[in-house]
Design brief:
By secondary structure, this protein is an alpha/beta fold. 27% of the residues lie in helices and 15% in strands. Helix 4 crosses helix 5.
Length: 354
């Protein structure tokens, strides 16, 4: 197994290294949004002065910092220059956002994050993290986008924040929203109740539709209902159902997709001193458990199970919750699907020549 040569477009990396020693977590960060005119507040921007692709990708990373000094029951938000976040966000980018880097010009802001406390989590994320993401996206639209179609990509907390962007900023700005090719809100529970409250949004029904939301959460067989902490907020409205689409066959029913329908995956090759992910042949199958609203993967080998569970436990997830692998398991299929949706969108909405 060889390490995958995944492209990383980190124009702010040097500034990140300078900032890494001076940030600290802040239990009461400023309510004002982060200033995205500052280059150091961007994890990734296109290297070329003039982006070379017709479509953009706006990416938000998952929770990328840990706060071991604070009570985990106390909701807490980090500073924009928190050293742990500045170190871990590029690692998430390398195993997630790079799947979309061949499809569009990647824009990825840093944003202040919740510490993963289960207390009032959705409201905390709707505060400062969403304030930063909306400010970053608005800056991107006004200064970088120039009317190009765009894809939204987020995982875990990043996907939750993008959900707030979709139900807020993009609802209020339909002229911007009509340029959205698709929103990949992966590792976050998209529910029928939430969609009913946001009738301008649509969930994907297949591989080809555009202007839609793509979402799923990955588990092994046998994970007990109610033990996956990623599926938060499910008790808020009785009868709420999580929607999911299969990232291999792009169906929303229980039709299984075998491993040979995979185009390729990423797997951890080395964990220390820095995580390195390598490309492997098709690795993961996928079947939707419609009742639970999750994707079930059965092909993790016995020799890999301890590694998977160790990674899950290190990030606070129970055995069999493959949250970290939501994108890596289906990396090449996500890349191909994003390109397919872009092709469909551009065919129906040609981009005018400059």
């Amino acid at each position: 197994m060889s390490a995958r040569n995944v492209p990383c477009f980190f124009t702010a990396l040097a500034l990140v290294l300078l900032l890494a020693g001076c940030g600290s977590s802040d239990p009461a960060p400023r309510a004002a949004a982060t200033d995205y005119a500052v280059a150091a507040h961007w994890l990734a921007l296109p290297v070329a002065p003039v982006p070379d692709k017709e479509v953009d990708v706006f990416y938000l990373y998952p929770t990328a910092w840990t706060d071991r000094s604070a009570d985990p029951e106390n909701p807490h938000v980090c500073a924009i220059d928190d050293p742990t976040m500045l170190a871990q966000a590029p690692e998430a980018f390398a195993r997630q956002a790079t799947a979309f880097a061949t499809v569009g010009n990647v824009y990825a802001p840093y944003y202040r994050q919740d510490n993963g406390s289960p207390v009032d989590r959705l409201n905390v994320i709707a505060g400062i993290p969403t304030t930063d993401a909306v400010a970053a996206f608005d800056y991107y639209i006004r200064h970088y986008n120039h009317g190009r179609p765009f894809i939204l990509v987020g995982h875990s907390q990043g996907a939750t924040v993008l959900g707030n962007l979709l139900s807020g900023y993009l609802k209020d700005n339909p002229d911007v929203y009509r340029h959205m090719v698709a929103a990949y809100l992966i590792g976050h529970p998209v529910t029928d109740t939430w969609l009913a409250g946001n009738p301008h949004l649509k969930f994907a029904t297949g591989p080809d539709d555009t202007g839609v939301i793509v979402s799923y959460n990955t588990e092994s067989p046998g994970v007990a209902r109610g033990t996956n902490p990623v599926l938060y907020g499910m008790d808020a409205v009785p009868g709420t159902h999580i929607l999911a689409i299969n990232p291999l066959n792009w169906r929303t029913d229980a039709t299984p997709a075998a491993r040979d329908e995979s185009l390729g995956s990423l797997m951890p090759v080395r964990l220390t001193p820095t995580p390195v992910w390598g490309q492997v042949p098709p690795y993961a199958d996928a079947t939707i458990d419609v009742d639970k609203g999750v994707v079930i993967c059965t092909t993790v080998t016995p020799q890999d199970t301890p590694l998977m569970n160790a990674i899950s436990r290190a990030q606070g997830f129970p055995d069999g919750v493959y949250h970290t692998f939501d994108i890596p398991f289906y990396y090449d299929n996500l890349q191909a699907n994003a390109q397919n949706r872009v092709n469909r969108f551009l065919a129906a909405n040609p981009v005018p020549s400059p």
